[in-house]
Structure formats: C-alpha cells, structure tokens
C-alpha cells in the first residue's frame, strides 16, 4: 500500500503554498496529545499551560517517582484543569516485568567498548564497570551466546552516550558475561535492562503494580491504565478482573505493545483491550529498525477498523533538550496522523524535557496541519468494507452521520450519549470535524451516582480522535425547562462558539439514540 494513498492533495499541487503562513487554529487538533507529568511539568502553572496548549490526557508513569509525588502532581493537575475549565483524564502507566539495576552508590558508571561486564542476581554486589547486579534470578537461564541486551537510565532515548548495548558472551551459573558494544556512562539511581526477543518469567502485572492500582489508583478513580509490556490477551483479562475486584469497573485498559510477544498476539490483545499504545522505543530494541514502521502502520490500521483508540510514542525526543524537533521527527508525527493514529504520547519530552509546553503545542500544530490532507474518504471506505453487509443498525447510522456531515460541510457532529460509545463509533469513521459528545445520564439512574460515572466516561472520550465531551444534565434547574435535545444542542453550540469551531449559520449534525433506534438530524445555527 503506497504511503501517498493516505494523503488527500488537490491537483495541481502548489508547493509554494507551503511557504504561506499557517492559519491560526483556535481549536486544538483532532489528534489527541498525552503528556507525561513529572519534574518539568509538576507545577499548577506548567500543567495549565500544557492543557491550554492542547494536552488532552495526563499520564502518570509509576516506573519513576513514588505515589506521594504523583499525588501532589495529580492535585496540581486538578487545580490546573479547574483553572483552564477543562476535563482531563488520568492515565496510570504500570511498571510491568521490568528488570532493574539499583545503583546503590549513586556514582556514574563508565563502560568502555570492548570490555566485559558481569550481570549477576547477587544484589549484595556494588554496581561497577565490572559487575552489575539485577533483581532477576533467571537471566542466565533464558539468554544464550550472541543475545542482545540493552541498558540505561533512560533506556530508549536513542542516545548512545547514556545507554549501552551488550552482547552475551557466556553464562556461568547465575551470572551472564557480556561484551560492551559501545562506550557509555550509566548515571542515575536506577538502570533498566531490556533483553531482546526473550521471554522474561516475570508477571506483566507485578505485585508493585497491584499495590499502586489498589491504593493510588483506586483512591483517585483513575480513568485509564496503560498496561506496560502486554504480552497476551490473558494479561488484559487479568487486569480487568483485578480492577473489578478493587472498585474500578469503569477504568479502561490500554494495552502497551512493546515487545515481540505482544506483537505476536496483537489481534487477540486488540479484542480484549479498550485501546492500544504502540511503544516504539522498546519495539525499536526488540525489532530490527527497518521493521518498526511496518508494524506501526499495520497496528494502526487494525485499530482503526475495530474503532479502538491507538496511540504512538517516541516522536520528538530531540525536544527533551531543544526548542524545535528535527525535520525527521516532524515528518514522523505527520505520517502517524496520516496512518490514522488517535493520539501522540509525549514521555520524556514533557516529563523531564526543558520545553514541555512547546513540545505539546508543536506536536499539536504538526497534527493539525497533517489532518488537512488526511484521506478520510479512503478510510471511510475501508471501515465500511470491514464492517460488511448487512451493516448493523448502529454502524449504518453512524456512518451516515459522518457522510452527511461531510456532504453539508458541518462545523461539528453533536452526539448525545450515556457511555461515550456512540461518540467512539462516530470517530471510527474519521469525520473531518470535531465530535461534541454530550454525556447525559441514563433514564432512571441515580443522579448522585451518575455524576461520578458520567464524568469518568466523559474524561475517557478525551483519548479518542476528534471527540470532545461535555457534561449534560436532566436537572430542570440546569436545563431551564428545555427538552433533552434542546438543552444538548444549546450546550454544544455554546461550547463550540466559545472555542471558535461554531459560527452563526453553521450547520451541525445531531446524532442521538431514541429507544432502539438512532436518529440523525441536520440543524443550522442561529445568526
């Protein structure tokens, strides 16, 4: 499949138009941006700037920092979201089966190419250039001569001065003797070890992860859990059962694919998970570099056909230290949008980078520009073909809503929904305009209980391409005596005008479910 088929360009193409100043965009890109909060994005002020710049989801990475630090950051996020008048979902990223070296001395360790280093499970040994102790006793059983290991504090930055390639020379008892392939200085309190294409007999959901979820996660009713190193569908089912048993039945699971095992079982994982995160840093170690792009394209394509959100990582690493991305990185972001990604995940760029706000805004501008040439008609046909005939009623109406919105050049599609599912279904057909999802309580539901459930459903929609949720109500004090439809339209139009996507006389598509039927209407905004 040619890459150009994912672009929609007018002929003849006027390359000189690229030099024209980009039109300022009041509304964020349809592609969502996940920002990892940490030392450089910890304060209320910086988080608020990130939200204003276009960050849609806040990620908390529990492979670093403790629960107390993350709680302080989350409290700051809540204040920032209140100031910015925005909802923001919380994504908890698990540690998973990660092998670590605890640098108890705290001193940098210099490794020289051509030297040998012993990796041992004897954690009583002090780490040095000659020996590195790990918290895993079976490494010598699962590796063989010639296998590749990779180690560093920031494991997958691509910077060969802070991470090291190792080649297994031999095993002796529980120890593994390795050849150092490149000179590197390992600095920091913890180094992570990655073993390429080898099964590690550690649970995907570690005891540490269970503790974090059952305490911090449960206390804060997290919206999404990113399950690191997902290797099979059973990993997702195990986490789902654990969430059910810890009063988190509505928390979504995004399976993080970052090793060859996850790739091998991708189709089964996709069926079980609520969304997918393609962790390209780790995949770039497990796969040959020339194969990473192909997996990315195939995985995004499969997620698009199933209507499940897909997010990619490791896009603008250079912005950790620089104000602008490289040309290759900017092109990479655009190509991910053209492939059909729902979101871009910024890790180190916002966690410890010098320019977290600029990273968010820059990626957002690239995404918005790429969206203008995204080949929506092609994607629409692919999804229609995949769904097949006869189409289920809900698919038929959702596709009709998107088709109508494009034909009448609607400014937005307004969806009335209880769970957010209808909005996700609309997004599956990749409309070129925003989807304003008004989350209403289900008839007969307890208002006090629904507020918490509805807010969770609304926040989770922020991870889906093009969907922007609004909290609706059936309380007469809030609706002013208007019908559900009148109130929902008024709410959507008011929001749309406030962010610059709806103007007088614009057309809107209204999509709602009435009983067992779904209805699509076209309305025109008042002048």
UniProtKB/TrEMBL annotation:
Query: What NCBIfam families does the record point to?
Result: pyruv_kin
Under what name is this protein listed? Pyruvate kinase
Query: Does the record's keyword annotation contain Glycoprotein?
Result: no
Q: Which reaction is this enzyme known to catalyze?
A: pyruvate + ATP = phosphoenolpyruvate + ADP + H(+)
Q: Which UniProt keywords apply?
A: ATP-binding, Glycolysis, Kinase, Magnesium, Metal-binding, Nucleotide-binding, Photosynthesis, Pyruvate, Transferase
Cofactor(s) the protein needs:
K(+)
Q: Which residues form the Pyruvate kinase C-terminal domain?
A: 395-514
Q: Which GO terms describe its cellular component?
A: cytoplasm
Q: Which pathway or pathways does this protein act in?
A: Carbohydrate degradation; glycolysis; pyruvate from D-glyceraldehyde 3-phosphate: step 5/5
């Amino acid at each position: 499949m040619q890459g150009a088929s994912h672009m929609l360009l007018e002929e003849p193409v006027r390359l000189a138009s690229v030099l024209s100043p980009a039109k300022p965009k009041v509304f964020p890109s349809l592609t969502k941006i996940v920002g990892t909060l940490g030392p450089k994005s910890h304060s209320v002020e910086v988080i608020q700037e990130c939200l204003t710049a276009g960050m849609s989801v806040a990620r908390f990475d529990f492979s670093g920092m403790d629960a107390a630090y993350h709680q302080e950051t989350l409290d700051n996020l809540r204040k920032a979201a209140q100031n910015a008048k925005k909802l923001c979902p919380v994504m908890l990223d698990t540690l998973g089966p990660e092998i670590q070296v605890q640098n108890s001395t705290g001193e940098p360790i210099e490794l020289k190419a051509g030297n040998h280093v012993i990796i041992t499970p004897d954690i009583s040994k002090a780490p040095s250039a000659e020996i590195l102790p790990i918290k895993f006793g079976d490494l010598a059983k699962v590796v063989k001569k010639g296998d590749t290991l990779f180690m560093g504090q920031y494991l997958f930055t691509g910077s060969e001065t802070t991470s090291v390639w190792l080649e297994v020379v031999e095993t002796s008892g529980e120890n593994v003797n390795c050849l150092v392939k490149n000179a590197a200085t390992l600095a920091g309190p913890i180094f992570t070890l990655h073993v390429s294409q080898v099964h590690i007999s550690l649970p995907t959901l570690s005891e540490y992860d269970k503790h974090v979820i059952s305490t911090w996660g449960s206390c804060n009713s997290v919206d999404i859990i990113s399950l690191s190193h997902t290797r099979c569908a059973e990993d997702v089912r195990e986490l789902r059962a654990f969430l059910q048993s810890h009063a988190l039945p509505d928390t979504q699971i995004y399976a993080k694919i970052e090793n060859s095992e996850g790739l091998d079982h991708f189709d089964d994982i996709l069926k079980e998970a609520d969304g997918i995160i393609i962790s390209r840093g780790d995949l770039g170690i497990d796969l040959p570099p020339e194969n990473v792009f192909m997996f990315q394209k195939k995985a995004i394509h499969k997620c698009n056909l199933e209507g499940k959100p897909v997010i990619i990582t490791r896009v603008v690493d250079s912005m950790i230290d620089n104000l602008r991305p490289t040309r290759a990185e900017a092109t990479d972001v655009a190509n991910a949008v053209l492939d059909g990604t729902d979101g871009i995940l910024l890790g180190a760029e916002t966690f410890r980078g010098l320019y977290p706000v600029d990273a968010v805004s820059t990626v957002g501008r690239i995404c918005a520009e790429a969206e203008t040439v995204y080949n929506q008609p092609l994607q629409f046909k692919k999804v229609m073909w995949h769904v097949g005939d006869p189409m289920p009623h809900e698919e038929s109406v959702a596709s009709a809503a998107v088709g109508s919105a494009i034909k009448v050049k609607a400014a937005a599609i307004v969806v009335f929904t209880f769970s957010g599912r209808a909005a996700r279904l609309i997004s599956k057909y990749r409309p070129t305009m925003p989807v304003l999802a008004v989350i209403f309580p289900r008839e007969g539901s307890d208002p006090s209980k629904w507020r918490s459930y509805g807010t969770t459903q609304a926040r989770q929609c922020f991870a889906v391409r093009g969907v922007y949720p609004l909290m609706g109500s059936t309380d007469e004090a809030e609706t002013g005596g208007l019908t559900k439809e009148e109130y929902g339209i008024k709410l959507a139009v008011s929001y749309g005008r406030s962010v610059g996507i709806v103007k007088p006389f614009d057309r809107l598509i209204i999509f709602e479910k009435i009983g067992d039927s779904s209805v699509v209407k076209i309305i025109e905004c008042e002048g």
